[in-house]
Design brief:
The chain has a single domain, classed as Imidazole glycerol phosphate dehydratase, domain 1 (Ribosomal Protein S5, domain 2), CATH 3.30.230. With about 180 residues, it is an alpha/beta fold. It is about 40% helix and about 30% strand.
Length: about 180
């Protein structure tokens, strides 16, 4: 179990994470964020506890992303499969997530919500993963954002599998605590 805490003058975030069965206990005070973090936990297979409070919704969502990304970075096995991809339909929405957990942060979207677009970018930066989200179709923002989180969860589930083999011609990627 990895524990990451982030305390600023604007927010207080505590994330506990382990590769497990996808159990979640999420308490941020933002119902939609709680819903997305629960979906991410369930579909990724990550056991996730988040307790968060903050002054503004934007600050809270951003800091939950940064803290969750940092926890993921710390929980990644050196011999994980590294790559993951999944396309998820949700009603009229169809969203694809493709990621590389190889230590190079990069995010490419967009999704049609500035707050959750910022969540994806902040998460990718803190986790040091490459993440591409493609909205293939859809008109309902809720459905698109939820499909994006579910697709990300499934892609993470693929990437997190400990294969016992390092998938890099450079050898094991060791990420510092910086």
């Amino acid at each position: 179990m990895i524990v990451v805490e982030r305390k600023t003058s604007e927010t207080s975030i505590r994330v506990e994470m382990a590769i497990g069965r996808g159990t979640a206990d999420i308490r941020t005070g933002v119902p939609f964020l709680d819903h997305m973090m629960t979906a991410l936990s369930r579909y990724s297979g990550l056991d996730l506890t988040i307790v968060a409070s903050g002054d503004l919704r934007h600050h809270l969502i951003e800091d939950v992303a940064l803290t969750t990304g940092e926890a993921l970075r710390r929980v990644l096995p050196a011999t994980c499969a590294r790559y993951g991809e999944r396309t998820v339909p949700m009603d009229e929405a169809l969203v694809q997530a493709v990621l590389d957990a190889g230590g190079r942060p990069y995010y490419r979207g967009p999704i049609p919500s500035s707050l959750y677009e910022h969540w994806m970018r902040s998460f990718s930066d803190a986790a040091k993963v490459t993440l591409h989200i493609r909205v293939l179709r859809g008109s309902d923002r809720h459905h698109i954002v939820e499909a994006a989180f579910k697709a990300l969860g499934f892609a993470l589930r693929q990437a997190l599998v400990d294969t016992g083999t390092v998938f890099s011609t450079k050898g094991a990627v060791v990420l510092g605590d910086a």
